[in-house]
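We modelled the chain as a single entity of 500 amino acids. Its sequence is:
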Amino acid sequence: MTTLSLKKDSIVLFVARLISGLSGLFAVALLSRFLDVKDYGLYRQWIVVTTFLTSILTLGFPAAITYFLPRAKNRDEEISWMTNIAASLSTVGIVLLLATPLIGFSVSRLFGNDALFRYEYLLTLSVALSLFIQIFPNLFVVRKNRKAIVLFSIVPNIAWLGLLIILVFVKASLEAYVFALLIRPLIDLLIGLLNSGEIFSFSKISWKQVSTIMKFSLPMGLSAIVGSIMLYTDKFVVGSMLTTEEFAVFVNGAYEIPFIGLITASLFTVITPRLSKAFSEERFEDIRTDWIRAGKTLIPIMISITSVMVFFARPIVITLYSDKYLAAIPVFMIYQSMGVIRIFSYSALFVASGKTRLYLFNTTLSAGVNLVLDILLVKIMGYIGASLATVLSTFILMMLQIIQAKNITKGRRFSDVFPLFSFFSGIALSSIVVGSFSMLLYLSFDNLFIQLLIGFIAFAVSFYLLSRIVSNEVMKTITGYMSNVFSVFSRKRRPRQGSV
């Protein structure tokens, strides 16, 4: 894959996922204003459960697509791998539906309410559909189907947002909002089937291939389960130990702004097949070069965004959730600090190298630390303790993964797999720049729009300085696209020769 193709694929995937993420962000902002705090808390409990179940039950099968398909020798072998991956996921979905009564009972007892979870079959149907459609994004990436990526990410979310606006306008019941969640996976499934070509053939179902897929996927799936438990432990602990209203405040503060994680995910989803091929050919120096380059590429934008999210937390929280959720500001600041480690997606390296058991070990240890810290700190500090526990365990996980990455890529120094100087100097410089701009908020700038404008200017200055010092690849890409757009408009406005 050429560098130009890599950039285009990353940008297309990022823009598509950004629009998807922003639709979720808009929905959160909309519902937090038009639902009372208790109903909003119940709605977010439903979202937490369905997202959690989907993330753990995929069992690493989507990652198998980016591992096995690039290694397929021909189209027939590629279809064979896809058939057995799809069959494995479908089996999980059927088992999930059969276990519906147990799941419905368990989640209702966990949160101590039956208001939403009496619709247990709706819950499991939503998760079962979401499980199957997980194969499509990675398939489209491997096959470089940019049009399908865009359609898959945008169309269902536009339809869902339109339906939400209608429900708000007619003042629908809370249950109607829950039923509306089905529209996205249904449309995603339709778009996926129409744009994926041949992905299934009963004649190609092979227990040998299923066994091979299981050996690769299950350690990755267990890692995803452990990682999801780590990610959602704080929410489950807060939901079970505190009130629904306190859960609503906490879950808003713990909400990750969509484009932060999407920037990293988009780049490393695209780069994973490339790394997988390099590992199969034992080109470790190329792997380390591509890995460090990817991380340094993301430092200017990720660290700058994180600094703005922390220093300008108050106007951002008010904009997203209204002043009903001012108590969420400390939680928001703590959670957004994790953005600095988003310069790498270590799962991509473990998937590409096939070292999924190491990834499982790291996430299991980190999840154990997170659980212990959550229980202890929530009792002492309430939901602030839950946010601190998650951040601490996440940074521990990062350090473990850096150690493993050095060994996997046969590096000699930690700087071979992590840009230490660029990382810490970038944090220091960005904090000084953005922190200085944030002081303007205290100079009687009460207008929310002006506060956000200052935050954007602070981001732009930080991003520009870090791009000049660390890596200018993102800036070059942005300016290149802007230059192309301006040149297109200028050609359209230029009069034809010979015209009066």
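As a brief sanity check on the tokenised model: DSSP finds 22 helices and no strands in the chain. Residues 315 and 448 are 6 Å apart (CA to CA).
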